[in-house]
Amino acid sequence: MPHDLLIIGAGPAGLTAALYAARGGLDTVVLEMGVPGGQAGLTDRIENYPGFPEGISGMELAMKFAEQAGRFGARIETTTVQGVDLAGEIKKVYTGSGEFTARAVIIASGAHPRPLGVPGEEEFRGRGVSYCATCDGAFFRDKKVAVVGGGDSAVEEALFLTRFASTVTIIHRRDTLRATKVLQERARDNPKINFSWNTVVTKVKGKEKVESVELKDVISGVTGEEAFDGVFIFIGTEPNTGFLKGALALDDLGYIVTRENLATSIPGVFAAGDVRAKDFRQVSTAVGDGAVAAMAAERYLSGL
Ligand code: NAP
User: Known catalytic residue: 136?
Assistant: First the structure.
C-alpha cells in the first residue's frame, strides 16, 4: 500500500512538514540519511528562531522538531534516497533499504557546503580542511585557523572557532562582509578574529595535514603564503538534488523551482526549505516552507 506522503529530508523543513501532515491525519514517512536536523542541527547556537529568547542549540531544536512530529505519528526512516520516479499518480522513491511509494512527495533534502575548488582542498579534507566548525572546531585548540567566506555562516562559525583556536583569520574576497550586522559587530569586537580583505585562497598546502594556504590579493594581484593549521570553508551551499536525475525542473544552480504553494513542475510533488530556489535560507523560513508544503500536499491529496 502506498503511503499518503513521503518527505525526503528531516531538517527543519521536512520535520515541520511531517508535523503538519501527520497531525492532519496523513500516513507520513520521512526519509533521512543521517541524524535529523540537517544543516541547522550542526549549528552550535540558533539565536533567530522565535520562542527561544536565550537561543537554542541546533541539535536540541532538531530533536524537539522530531519529537513533535513523532507525537502525531510521523515515522522517520534512516535510509539514503538514491532515485525517484515521480511522474505517475503513485510516486516511487528508491532508497538503500528498498522502494517507498506514496501519493504525494515533499522534497526537503536541503543543501551542503560548496567546495572552493582549489588544489589541496580535497586532498586535505578531514586533515585540516573542514566545512563544519561545530564538528571539527575542538581539534584546533590553540591553533591558527583560516575561515574562508563573508556570509552568515563564515562569520558565525569563525566566532564559534574562537572558543578553541588561538587566532581566526576571516579571508574574504571583498572588503565588506555579507553577514548580518550583529554578527559583523561581534566578529570585529572579538580580539581573536582578524580579517584578510580582498583576498582569495588559491591553494591548500601541507604534508600529512594542512600547514599553509596560498593567497592572492584580488586588487593588486600579489600572491603570498600564510601558515595555518586549519581551513574552514563557508562560501555558500549547493542543493542536495543529485538523486532527482532530471525528474523535476531545477534552476541554473540546481535548486528546485517551485510555484505558489511550493508545488514543483510535477503534480503531487512539493519542495520546501533550502533545496528550493529562493532568496532567504533560515530555520524560520524552512519551517514556514514545511508548513505550506504539507498543507498544499493535504489539499492535493483530498482532490481540492
Ligand atoms: P552566502 O550567504 O551565500 O555567503 C557566501 C559567502 O562566500 C559570500 O560572502 C561570498 O562572497 C563568498 N563566496 C562565494 N563564493 C566564493 C568563492 N568562490 N571564493 C571566495 N568566496 C566566495 O552563504 P552562507 O554564509 O553559507 O549562508 C547561506 C544561507 O544561510 C544564507 O541565506 C544565510 O543568511 C543563511 N544562514 C543564516 C544564518 C543565521 O541566520 N544565523 C547562519 C548561517 C547561514 P560575496 O559576499 O562576495 O558574494
Answer: yes
Q: What is the pLDDT of residue 107?
A: 98
For residue 46, the ligand 1 atom closest to its alpha carbon is 41
The C-alpha cell of 170 is what?
A: 576571516
How far apart, in whole angstroms, are the C-alpha atoms of residue 156 and residue 88? 43
Cα 250 to middle of ligand 1, angstroms:
21
pTM of the model: 0.90
Q: Are strands 129-130 and 230-233 parallel, antiparallel or unpaired?
A: parallel
- Give the end-to-end CA distance of the chain in Å, rounded to a whole number: 22
Q: List own/partner pairs for 256-265 with CB under 8 A and 24 or more apart.
A: 256/107, 261/292, 261/293, 261/295, 261/296, 261/299, 262/289, 262/292, 262/293, 262/296, 263/296, 263/300, 264/107
State yes or no: pLDDT of 267 exceeds 90: yes
**Ligand 1 geometric centre to CA of 237 (Å):** 8
Q: What share of the chain is helix, strand, coil (3-state, %, to 5)?
A: 30, 30, 40
Q: Which of 88, 151, 103 is nearest to 6 (CA)?
A: 103
177: helix, coil or strand? coil
Indicate if ligand 1 lies below 6 Å from the C-beta of 12: no
Q: Could you report the per-residue pLDDT of 16-61, keeping only the tens digit for each?
A: 999 999 999 999 999 999 999 999 999 989 999 999 999 999 999 9
CB of 278 shorter than 6 A to ligand 1: no
Q: How far is CA 233 from CA 22, 53, 148, in A?
A: 38, 29, 5
